[in-house]
Amino acid sequence: MILSHRIRLVPTAAQQAYFTRACGVARFSYNWALAEWRRQYHAGEKPSEVALRRSLNAIKDEQFPWMREVTKNAPQQAIKNLGRAYANFFDDRKKYRRGEIAWKYVRVPKFKKKGHRDGYRADNGPDKVHPDALRVLGKRAKLPVIGWVRMREEVRFAGRILSVTISRQADAWFASFSIEVDHEPEVRTDETVVGVDLGITSLATLSDDTPNVPAPKPLRRYLKKLERLNRAFSHKQRGSRNRAKAKTKLARLHRRIADIRADTLHKLTTSLKRYRTILVEDLNVAGMLANRHLSRAIADVGFFEFGRQLQYKAAMAGSVVIVADRWYPSSKLCSTCGEKNEHLSLSERSWTCASCGTCHDRDQNAALNLARYPESWPGSACGAEGAGGEESLTVKPAA
Ligand SMILES: [Zn+2]
């Protein structure tokens, strides 16, 4: 199993300068390859990331000699990322043609801008000569070319490090390690089942009597502060020192908010692995409604992240994640008698079943329906999907 762990770095000034250069090379290579991809496509050729990597390699020493200052991984991985971006785009386009998603959810590869999601990746790779180009030792990581960099904490998982992505967020640098972990899944004998409804008012509602997981409180306070800082920033004069200061403040707050969201999501997914079977709605569909209808804590951290965490934590705990069919009307079915309420609108938080008279809390009812998904939905006997990284969980992260 491959797990990832993101750790804040404590780089020296020289190391920061190197990171910035490597990010620049990665961005340049990505944009170069994207322009080249588009040109070849319009010329009727068939572009591929492998060919683009080869052609960049062939010309870089002559045309872009400054690329040699940083690890050769930076340009190579950037072009691999472009290949993946195109693969996602082709997937999305297929879904669009099948009428499954709107065009605005199709991820079209775009040019990268400086200062926006800066990052580069380095691989350990199958390199037999230098098998340990990447290494960690306590709170230090050895990276290609620059050597040892200090970290805020140790890597949590034991195993071979496959790759590392160095990225900047506000004024901080992070390393995200991809680690191959040997693990024996636990053998579970319990029959615990839970349906999970991701919600607007609370983060998650479970089908049993576990109290709802509330949306994190500090978030609301920080969101207020964020609005204030945003206003302050926009009123400062362009190019002034005060504006630069306000920008740093704003970026730091963005990071703190992102941390709270990530932390909340980790707690939620960790708490779910105590069940042997976990049933969730189709996150592809949920993800698309995210910004309008779901808790900001999930919507902004992203459904991909929720699915990713749930999947690996469940796999380690020997649990199974079942994703309900996208057409399963978990909100509209009465969990008592099975009658479907066709008229339920998104704003109705509670409703009474016209057939049996049961009064339902919207989220609780949806969670209950998810929990009994396997028996109650036609075709689910063979259509239900277990854990194991299937496509339905690779969802588009919310914007
Ligand atoms: Zn009913």
- Small molecules bound in the structure, each named once: zinc ion
Q: Describe the largest sheet.
A: 7 strands, antiparallel
Which percent band covers the strand fraction?
15-25%
Stretches where pLDDT falls below 50 for ≥5 residues? 380-399
Sheet with the most strands: spatial strand order: 2-6-7-1-5-4-3
* Number of E strands: 14
How much helix, percentage-wise, in residues?
Answer: 40-55%
Task: Report on this structure.
This protein is of the alpha+beta class and 399 residues long. The protein contains eleven helices and 14 strands. The chain has helices at 13-42, 49-63, 73-97, 217-235, 241-272, 283-293, 296-301, 303-317, 362-371, 373-376, 380-383; strands spanning 2-10, 119-123, 135-137, 140-143, 147-151, 160-169, 172-180, 193-198, 202-206, 213-214, 277-280, 320-323, 350-352, 359-361. The chain has a seven-stranded antiparallel beta sheet with strand order 2-6-7-1-5-4-3. The chain has a five-stranded mixed beta sheet with strand order 10-9-8-11-12. The chain has a two-stranded antiparallel ribbon with strand order 13-14. The radius of gyration is 24 Å and the shape is globular. The structure holds zinc ion (ZN). Zinc ion (ZN) binds next to loops.
List keywords for this structure.
single chain, 399 residues, 7-stranded antiparallel beta sheet, 11 helices, 18% strand, binds zinc ion
Topology, please?
Layout: E1 2-10, H1 13-42, H2 49-63, H3 73-97, E2 119-123, E3 135-137, E4 140-143, E5 147-151, E6 160-169, E7 172-180, E8 193-198, E9 202-206, E10 213-214, H4 217-235, H5 241-272, E11 277-280, H6 283-293, H7 296-301, H8 303-317, E12 320-323, E13 350-352, E14 359-361, H9 362-371, H10 373-376, H11 380-383
Helix pairs in contact: 1-2, 1-3, 2-3, 4-5, 5-8
The protein binds zinc ion.
Zinc ion is lined by residues 334, 336-337, 339, 353, 355-356, 358.
